[in-house]
Write a structure and sequence with these properties.
Blueprint: H1 6-18, H2 24-28, H3 30-37, H4 43-60, H5 68-95, H6 105-122, H7 126-136, H8 145-159, H9 175-195, H10 207-218, H11 235-258
């Protein structure tokens, strides 16, 4: 694969797993491949590079070098391990019941890299991987239901740590404010997914748009007449803090994927 950003890596990796890629059949067999070569998409390339280094080192050595035997053993070892990896991959390919797998090293490594990307996403806390899939995965609305619920639950927890409009000096906010927070959290998630890079859509850019979307999506009316209030707790402040949280979560979710960019084929 040729990657240009962590966001694209997430889309392409899950696109591969869904079966809409020339190497989708390979991905279906990744678990079996990992049994032979380990869960590391760079292993094949790493062994190849090691073998090249060993070959060069031996070719540059003189007949009387003290480490000549050591260099020979290193070359034989890397050659043997490289052969074992290639043989294992060929065996998996031949035994596949899902059609013909790509039979060259580049495509095999590409498929394994898709696995690395997904692993980098799914090793993260549930709300971060949900955000990554929700914003950048190639999924339908129905397929994203569970991720949306995880994200909503996590963001509700953040919202409940804030002081909400109408709460005053009470320890807990009124039920009406909690209900309104629930719909505003849902709108914030939708807005973030629409407005974030690379989509840059307008999203829900004012209170009326937010209220209209909530009514259309959830059939609920929310009061946005007092959206902003100087010197008092207001929904505008809550909204901005929710969006800041989503921005921070997006950075956290993309970070481990972005680290794979330099190693991607």
């Amino acid at each position: 694969m040729r990657y240009i950003s962590a966001r694209q890596m997430i889309f392409e990796a899950y696109h591969t797993r869904r079966g809409n890629s020339p190497i989708a059949d390979l991905f279906d067999n990744l678990k079996r491949i990992r049994e032979h070569v380990g869960n590391n998409g760079a292993k094949l390339r790493s062994l190849t590079a090691e073998h090249k280094r060993n070959t060069k080192a031996l070719s540059n050595a003189g007949p009387f070098d003290e480490n000549l035997e050591e260099l020979k053993r290193a070359l034989a070892s890397s050659e043997r391990r490289l052969s074992e990896v290639r043989t294992a991959l060929e065996d998996v390919s031949k035994s596949s019941n899902e059609g013909h797998l790509p039979d060259n090293d580049w495509k095999i490594v590409s498929g394994l890299e898709a696995g690395q990307v997904i692993s980098a996403v799914e090793r993260q806390p549930q709300h971060l991987q949900a955000l990554a899939r929700y914003c950048f995965g190639p999924f339908t609305r129905d397929e994203l239901t569970e991720d949306r619920e995880w994200l909503h639950t996590a963001l509700m927890h953040v919202g409940m740590q804030m002081r909400l409009p109408g709460q005053g000096q009470s320890e807990y906010p009124p039920a009406e404010a909690v209900n309104q927070l629930r719909w505003i959290v849902s709108a914030a998630i939708h807005h973030h997914a629409e407005a974030t890079y690379p989509y840059n859509r307008p999203g829900l850019h004012n209170p009326r748009r937010i209220a209209a979307w909530i009514e259309e999506e959830h059939g609920e009316e929310v009061d946005v007449r007092r959206w902003a209030a100087n010197g008092r707790t207001c929904w505008k402040g809550v909204w901005e803090k929710l969006l800041d949280t989503l921005d921070r979560w997006e950075c956290q979710a993309l970070h481990p994927v972005a680290e794979l960019l330099s190693r991607a084929a």
